[in-house]
Specification:
Elements (H helix, E strand, L loop, with lengths): L7 H14 L5 H13 L3 H6 L7 H15 L4 H5 L1 E4 L2 E4 L9 H13 L2 E7 L5 H9 L1 E9 L2 H14 L4 E4 L11 E6 L6 H5 L3 H4 L15 H13 E10 L5 H11 L2 E7 L5 E7 L5
Parallel strand pairs: 3-4, 3-6, 4-5, 6-7
Antiparallel strand pairs: 1-2, 7-9, 8-9
Helix pairs in contact: 1-2, 1-4, 6-7, 11-12
């Protein structure tokens, strides 16, 4: 069978074998996912036309993607596509891959502050800011990041979705004045140096370290957000943070000591303490 006459089913069978040999879980499913994401087509389309010939150019592109995945590169970086809530976004090594857990962060922000002026601090791909813009009723949604590479990726996702968010370069909440916002949402770096060193290679070798490590104790960025949040939020405004489950209660104690009210820790979809919600008091 020549390159010009290889069928999609045959291509996927070989890809599945390659992925299985590399230890990738559910290799056949993963192969179909790669094909679907590369072509921007539903899996069912591939199944329906599995006996049809694949053009040589497409076949080679698919094989290269499978080879990258077999070498350990995360799937969203291989295909350049990731899903987040109702959005399909671009994803590559310029920013952290959006996780399902982070979708819960958006849910809590919408529940507590669905309108007004909101900032996504450390926006990365722009996933949180874009989801808030799509699902909320905000006057202003701003995504902030100190990484220009990440901001460029977020700009691409803004163009892709057509959603109206502002993107600003800056470190944490530096771009904002006093009482400028009704809500601040963030998925900040929250791993310790030791935890980062122990991460699976699929994360540590590919995703940006600065988006993962929050200092020696994992709380360095959290402390800064808790302090700065009191400055930039209006009275009764909300702070919504994603955090490490092992330091959830420690973070809550820091929030209470800093002067936040209505401090609460919420579980993620896996039952782990994952989010902190706190309100700025009317008077500090």
């Amino acid at each position: 069978m020549t390159e010009r006459t290889v069928t999609l089913d045959r291509l996927v069978v070989h890809a599945g074998a390659r992925l299985q040999a590399a230890g990738v879980p559910e290799p056949r499913r993963e192969a179909w996912r790669i094909w679907s994401d590369l072509l921007g087509a539903p899996w069912s389309t591939g199944a329906i036309f599995s006996d049809q010939a694949v053009p040589a150019v497409q076949a080679e592109k698919f094989r290269r993607a499978v080879d990258r995945r077999a070498k350990g590169e995360p799937l969203p970086y291989v295909t350049g596509v990731t899903g987040f809530r109702r959005l399909t976004l671009r994803s590559d090594r310029r920013a952290l891959i959006p996780r399902p857990e982070t979708e819960g962060l958006v849910e809590l922000a919408l529940r507590h502050q669905p309108r007004g002026r909101v900032a996504d601090v450390g926006t990365g791909t722009g996933c949180i800011a874009l989801a808030l813009a799509e699902e909320g009723d905000y006057d202003l949604v701003v995504g902030v990041d100190r990484s220009q590479d990440a901001l460029t990726l977020a700009e691409e996702n803004r163009a892709l979705t057509g959603l109206g968010i502002n993107l600003v370069a800056g470190d944490l909440m530096d771009p904002f004045g006093a009482e400028a916002l009704d809500a601040v949402v963030a998925n900040p770096p929250y791993l310790t140096d030791a935890e980062y060193a122990g991460l699976d290679t699929s994360v540590r070798a590919w995703e940006p370290r600065e988006a993962l490590v929050g200092g020696p104790d994992g709380l360095e960025v959290m402390r800064a957000l808790l302090v700065e949040g009191l400055r930039v939020l209006r009275p009764e405004g909300w702070l919504v943070l994603e955090l490490d489950a092992t330091r959830a209660q420690a973070t809550a104690r820091l929030a209470e000591a800093a002067g936040w009210s209505e401090v609460a820790v919420h579980d993620d979809l896996f039952g782990r303490a994952r989010y902190l919600v706190a309100r700025r008091s009317e008077t500090l």
